[in-house]
């Protein structure tokens, strides 16, 4: 599978995963997904430390703000907000969260109501976002160079068509 290919594991034709050969592929995928994101979307970024979740978030945020926007990992701040002019983007890192009371203090419900949320380590938030939730699992490729990533998708109902459109645009841009 080339960096521009995706594959389906089901009969609906939905994209289940993409293979990314390098950081620039991740940034292009992030931009494609950002183009179809809207208010109320929750995008969960899952995978081990150092796998590329923050790189993806940085590409997503920069595609909707400025290409030189400073986008640090919110590991210690827990949340960063970015103004796009139209829809704010909330970038959370829940790696250090240990209780529900800490989650409540972060204002996730208010953020979802008025913006787009990117969450690294989303396992502790349950079904926040419902049908507008897109979970993305980042894994290292099992063969080839160490920078290869496999991104698997688990889209809520509201994401299914938009995700397919985003991946199709990503593939077309990569092949052009």
For this entry, give a set of tags.
disordered N terminus, about 25% strand, alpha/beta, about 180 residues
Regarding CATH, which class? Alpha Beta
Residue fraction in strands: 15-25%
Residue runs with pLDDT of under 50 for 5 or more positions: 1-13
Multimer state: single chain
CATH architecture call: 3-Layer(aba) Sandwich
**Helix-residue proportion:** 25-40%
Order of helices and strands: EEHEHEEHHEEEH
Number of DSSP strands?
8
> Numbering strands along the chain, what is their spatial order in the largest sheet?
1-2-8-7-3-6-5-4
Structural class: alpha/beta
The H-level CATH homologous superfamily, spelled out, is P-loop containing nucleotide triphosphate hydrolases
Q: How would you state the average pLDDT, rounded?
A: 85
**Main sheet characteristics:** 8 strands, mixed
Radius of gyration: 15 Å
Helix tally? 5
CATH level 3 topology: Rossmann fold
Shape: globular
> What count of structural domains?
1
End-to-end distance, in Å? 17 Å
């Amino acid at each position: 599978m080339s960096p521009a290919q995706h594959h389906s594991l089901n009969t609906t034709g939905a994209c289940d995963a993409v293979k990314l050969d390098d950081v620039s592929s991740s940034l292009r995928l992030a931009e494609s997904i950002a183009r179809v994101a809207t208010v109320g979307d929750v995008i969960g970024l899952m995978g081990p430390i150092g796998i590329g979740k923050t790189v993806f978030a940085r590409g997503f945020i920069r595609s909707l703000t400025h290409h030189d926007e400073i986008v640090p990992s919110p590991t210690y701040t827990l949340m960063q907000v970015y103004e796009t002019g139209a829809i704010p983007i909330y970038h959370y890192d829940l790696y250090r969260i240990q209780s529900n009371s800490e989650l409540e203090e972060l204002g996730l419900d208010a953020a979802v109501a008025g913006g787009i949320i990117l969450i690294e380590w989303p396992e502790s938030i349950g079904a926040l976002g419902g049908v507008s939730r897109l979970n993305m699992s980042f894994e290292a490729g099992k063969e080839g160079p160490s920078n290869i990533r496999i991104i698997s998708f688990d889209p809520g109902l509201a994401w299914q068509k938009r995700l397919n459109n985003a991946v199709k645009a990503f593939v077309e841009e990569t092949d052009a």
